[in-house]
Design brief:
Blueprint lengths: L6 H16 L37 E2 L7 E4 L12 E2 L2 E8 L7 E8 L6 H10 L4 E11 L2 E10 L8 E10 L2 E9 L2 H17 L1 E2 L2
Protein name: Lipoprotein
Keywords: Lipoprotein, Signal
Length: about 210
Amino acid sequence: MRIRIGMTACAVLVAAALTACSGGGGDGDGTAGKQTGAPWFDEVTAAASAGPATACALPVKLPVVERWRVKPVRLDGGPMDALAQQGDVTMACEIDAKPAGPIGFLRVWIARPDATQPRPVLESFLGADRGLTDVAYRDVDAGGLTAVEATYLREGPTEPAGKRERAFAVATSQGIAVVTLSGLDNKQYQAMLPAYVLARQQITPAA
């Protein structure tokens, strides 16, 4: 049996396909182009802030959630240093959610001093990780600063279809910072999204 689809239906299908493949969207703060559900989850609201992550020396002030543990990352020339370097950035701060319940981290990475644009930095960072699929980018307003955000899936044993993660890169006069969110699995990712949204919405340049 042959099924015929009218021109109007075809046009709708084509438009839907183009939208799904664009990877674009609104500003990530729930204004024009808000995207609810996967992959952006723009309906998630920010958690309450317990103050900035003062334990880490960063080009930004990053608000954190109560009981999340902030730990500076210091390179000492040992074999573990390679894990703190990816693409054009180096990890400078690790914020552990476990004391508050969820299992996962917010991490802050700092770009090389000569980097000037957040998107190339974020693309280089994610491009250096071979375990990622379904990567999509969009421009966002991060605390009033120029930023670009990415959502992606990570291959791994905990989630057969891929573990959702998130990152944004923001430009300040003191340098570019990349903030990443990763959890043990997709349930933990969802539990930590309010903390990530808080960081993205209220990040400010360091004094």
